[in-house]
Design a protein that fits this description.
Length: about 180
């Protein structure tokens, strides 16, 4: 599969996963894809923790309510640090977003599925802080996202997307087709 195919095949998969353990070399490949993402002023504000120990996964799932991805054999937790790049500008959100997208594409390339869970864990109930405590994340890091990784039991469905010409143009806003 090439990158364009991976982009077209990627879906947010929220179903059950097969119990098959994910080989560590695949998890390393996925995480390295995330760490290879561009980073504003090369501040490299994104860090990752992959959880594949069933006991630790069980602890994490005990604090996620409503539950998500309970059958995933691995969970990549995305951490960020607010480090200013220049003129008091911080690109942490852009950095971890690029890292997440790279990982989502690598996950598809390797034959797995995932979903970007951010709002669910960073809402007012701060599930992210509970997960961070379980994982011994230092205070200077924020846990901002979890990506389940596994082989899908079902099909990931494609959402309806707007037509290209409704969102992209040449030379001016709503310019040439």
């Amino acid at each position: 599969m090439n990158v364009i195919e991976a982009i077209k095949e990627r879906r947010s998969y929220r179903g059950n996963f097969k119990a098959d353990k994910i080989p560590r070399e695949n998890l390393i490949t996925i995480m390295q894809a995330g760490l290879d993402a561009p980073s504003g002023c090369n501040k490299q504000t994104t860090s990752l923790i992959c959880v594949d120990d069933p006991d630790v996964l069980k602890q994490i799932h005990s604090v996620i309510n409503p539950p998500i991805a309970e059958t995933a054999p691995a969970l990549i937790c995305v951490l960020t640090q607010r480090i200013n790049a220049y003129r008091d500008k911080c690109f942490a959100i852009q950095d971890y977003s690029a890292a997440i997208e790279n990982m989502l594409l690598a996950i598809v390339e390797l034959g797995y599925q995932s979903c970007w869970y951010e709002g669910h864990i960073t809402d007012d109930d701060r599930i992210c802080d509970k997960i961070a405590t379980i994982l011994n994340v230092p205070e200077e890091y924020d846990l901002v996202c979890v990506l389940p990784v596994g082989i899908a039991e079902g099909q990931a469905t494609a959402p309806k997307k707007k037509e290209f010409k409704e969102q992209a143009w040449f030379n001016t806003f709503k310019g040439e087709d």
